[in-house]
Amino acid sequence: MKNGDWRMENIIKLESIDFYYDEKVLDDINLKIKKNEKISVLGSNGSGKSTLLRVLAGLYFAKKGNYFFEGVKVNKKIAKKLRKKIGILFQNPDSMIFNPTVYDEIAFSLKEFGFDDIDDRVIEIAKKFHIEKYLSKSPINLSGGEKQKVMLAAILVYEPEVLLLDEPTTAMDPKTTGWFIDFLLELDKTVVLATHDLSVAYETTDRAVVMSEGHKIIYDGDMDDLMKNLDILLEANLIHKHKHRHKNFIHSHYHLHF
Ligand SMILES: Nc1ncnc2c1ncn2[C@@H]1O[C@H](COP(=O)(O)OP(=O)(O)OP(=O)(O)O)[C@@H](O)[C@H]1O
């Protein structure tokens, strides 16, 4: 790697990205992500986190602005090549499941990408994720948290350079969430984690990107500093106020929901 070459230092660079469905849902997004950096994308419902991840995965294309991956401008022509380099875990694992067994689900991309040690790779990742006992089962019948684990294994087995995670912990119980946090902390990859779970974001990433209801980035910086920034946390609906009960009195104050 050449010193000071941004194309290599920033594995991902978004320049003034606008994305529309019927209406604009990403507004002037500028984002640089370094190789092996882990960032959280936080924001209220509908702020555009999932859409941002789909643009990064090369599944959606912006109407305006540029996306560079490893210094190469991403367009429909080169998007196919990104598939092996970028793995995306969708919010709803059911939308990703289409194989009859967990084994087939994990082996699917390996076959597609032409790996020749498929059996060894499937067994190794299944052991690492403690899902060997499910290999011959149908993934459809697993619990939500188990499905997330299987789909995560199905992505990591082909060793993408970047991992995009969309609300990965919503269906996980506290024990599986703990496993997931340890797993992320040990993972030596570029990770973009979209989540409402401030505690998971805080424990696994040093940098936070916060999106507003107006679909703009309103904060990009240190996770610790974000936790002290009440204005941004309130604007992005990451904290809220509601009444609650303490033994014999009821009062209200802001909640972080850690
Ligand atoms: N396929 C689509 N067609 C039209 N509008 C869409 C589509 N997908 C998402 N939207 C809208 O775009 C906006 C951004 O959605 P997106 O899913 O990116 O937000 P999000 O921040 O991930 O939300 P959440 O936290 O609820 O998952 C929302 O208003 C949503 O209703």
Polypeptide structure, described:
- The protein has 258 residues and is of the alpha/beta class.
- It has 10 helices and 12 strands.
- The chain has a 6-stranded mixed beta sheet, with helices on both faces. A 4-stranded antiparallel beta sheet has the order 2-1-4-5. The protein has a two-stranded antiparallel sheet with strand order 11-12.
- The mean pLDDT is 89.
- Bound molecules: adenosine-5'-triphosphate.
- Residues 21-22, 25, 43, 45-51 line the site of adenosine-5'-triphosphate (ATP).
Question: Which features characterize this protein?
Answer:
258 residues; 10 helices; alpha/beta; ATP hydrolysis activity; Cobalt/nickel transport system ATP-binding protein; single chain; Rossmann fold; four-stranded antiparallel sheet; binds adenosine-5'-triphosphate; transport; ATP-binding; membrane; six-stranded mixed sheet
In a nutshell, what does this entry contain?
With 258 residues, the chain is of the alpha/beta class.
Topology, please?
Blueprint: H1 6-9, E1 10-20, E2 24-34, E3 38-43, H2 49-56, E4 64-69, E5 72-73, H3 76-85, E6 86-89, H4 102-112, H5 118-128, H6 144-156, E7 162-166, H7 174-186, E8 190-194, H8 198-204, E9 207-211, E10 217-222, H9 223-227, H10 230-235, E11 240-246, E12 249-255
Parallel strand pairs: 3-8, 3-9, 6-7, 7-8
Antiparallel strand pairs: 1-2, 1-4, 4-5, 9-10, 11-12
Helix pairs in contact: 4-5, 4-6
Adenosine-5'-triphosphate (ATP) binds at residues 21-22, 25, 43, 45-51.
